[in-house]
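fwd from M.: "can u put these together and see what the complex looks like"

so here's what she sent:
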Amino acid sequence: MIPDDRLLDLAARLADASGAVIRRYFRAGVDADDKPDRSPVTVADREAESAMRALLAAEAPGHGIVGEEHGRENEGAELTWVLDPIDGTKAFLAGKPIFATLIGLLHRGRPVLGVIDQPVISERWVGAAGRPTTLNGAPVRVRACPGLDRARVSTTGPQYFDDEGRRAFDRVAARAKLLSYGGDGYQYGLVACGSLDLVIEAGLKLHDFAALGPVIEGAGGVVTDWQGRALGAGSGGDVLAAGDARAHAEAMRALAGAS
Amino acid sequence: MIPDDRLLDLAARLADASGAVIRRYFRAGVDADDKPDRSPVTVADREAESAMRALLAAEAPGHGIVGEEHGRENEGAELTWVLDPIDGTKAFLAGKPIFATLIGLLHRGRPVLGVIDQPVISERWVGAAGRPTTLNGAPVRVRACPGLDRARVSTTGPQYFDDEGRRAFDRVAARAKLLSYGGDGYQYGLVACGSLDLVIEAGLKLHDFAALGPVIEGAGGVVTDWQGRALGAGSGGDVLAAGDARAHAEAMRALAGAS
């Protein structure tokens, strides 16, 4: 399914609506509540998702919604929007403008459109099946990375891996050219525009990864789980994104423990 | 020694000169060489420092210079500029706009003026003895943080600690409200404007920390080594910055292993 201009326009307006809320609260003394999984959530997360839901209710009432903060609507719809208003709430609270609003569109469970939006510094990656990925409207491409020894690798933080996952990540990091921490969903935009070669994460949920495939694949990259399977509504939460399939294959072997 | 307007103006023009170079190279396909300590350096680091040195040669030929990339000049001068064109070269290479240009001015070895500048997204913190710290010209203040259990803690990455340092950091992190990775010198600006409560780092060099004291102290915070000693030309590389002296004291006890 190839998203038409109307769907791309709606995705852009969702990001606009979310960003307007987020900019109002960034570095403005917002405090966090803890969710049951101890991850933080703020009034900015909740109001930004509500703004996107209000727009969808008005413009696309038949579509499904899966949102990080306010749950599911219209389950079983052919088209479902997957919303994460602030992916990187800790970075948002810390005042670091490298969190992202993630907007994915699933067609029968398969991601066909993705937006990675940084509303404070106005950076927006848009990817959709059948089109080149853009950053602020201009096409972007991944960069070549023939092997791990040349790779710029990033992950949000070591605390998101379990012990086994941490050892697997460390096997990749030990062979990489450069290791950088921080960035949540924003990191995947950096793969799409050729700044990063690999992003490796664990424990992600659908709202964290639904937007990533269209953005990275439309820029010439590849994103799968750690076993090389496509990401979709039924995926687990381990994500391996790469600009170059050769670095992806080598990282997958290192994650699995092969030398 | 209270820096006068002429010195503050010169510091701002140094940051302007460095930033013009850095913006030209950001996300522009720059590659890194490895320095002897295996940290990366790029043409952007070298040219940005050269641009600052050329300005100092023209405007303040009698001042001393300590630069990360091009060494020392006029050792023994009463006033010495300490230059780090890109603090966070890995973040620069990864395309993350949270590295910083750090400019410190020492009077007889004691920091009296500091600039933390993010040239891509145009954020500049300026601190000087006898003046309130500003972010883009507007005064900023730290936020209150009565104890570690309320603290937003940040560090660049776990790989910069040795094993003992990592255990000490983990003791602080385990009691903190929120832990965020990434940011190098930019993190200290976030303490000064009340987004972060604590930044804890190890292995820093003079060019990494000379600018921090004036910025954080002028915003109402405190920055010392892990034993509570003032930072200056003779300091070791362990840095503990806090917006609130109570959180600073509790973090210092946790770093030392006290319960």
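replying to her w this: The two ends of chain B are 39 Å apart (CA to CA).
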